[in-house]
Amino acid sequence: MSDWRPVLTAALVYRDPRAAIGWLERAFGFELFMLIEDGDGNLAHAEMRFGDAALMVGSEWSDAHRSPASLDGRNTQSLHVHVDEDVDAHCERARAAGAEIVDPPAEQFYGDRTYRCRDPEGHIWTVAQTVRQVTREAAEQASGLKITGWI
Question: For the chain, which has fewer Cβ within 10 Å, the N-terminal or C-terminal residue?
C-alpha cells in the first residue's frame, strides 16, 4: 500500500460501483489507485484520487449504506471539488459524461465560480474554481451574512 494518505477521505456507495468508477474518471478526472476484488471478481473496495484528495467507492452493503438511487434520490451528504482552472469546461465534461446539471456555473459572493450536478446514481456534487479574491468584509456586504473565521 502506498504511503500517501489524505487526512480525510469521503466514501460513496453505488448500486454499480464499477460503472461509477468509469463515470468519475470520464466526468471529473478522478484516477483509480486501488481496486480490491473478491475471488469471484466482485468489487470489494476501490479508491480514487483527485489532486491531493481521495474518494472511496463501494457497493451497497447494509440498509444504512445505500445509494441515493435506492433512496428515491435522497442525499445525506454532498461533495465539493475544487478545480484550479476552467470550471466551465469541467461542467461541460461532466454534462457530456451524463451528469445532470442542477445549477449551471455562476460566480458566488465569496469569489468562486461554481456549478452543481447530480451523478447517474443521484449523488450531488458541487465543483468550484476561485476566480477572484474577496475580503471577508466584501463577502459580508454582498451576502448580508455575518461571517466568522474567514481565511
Answer: C
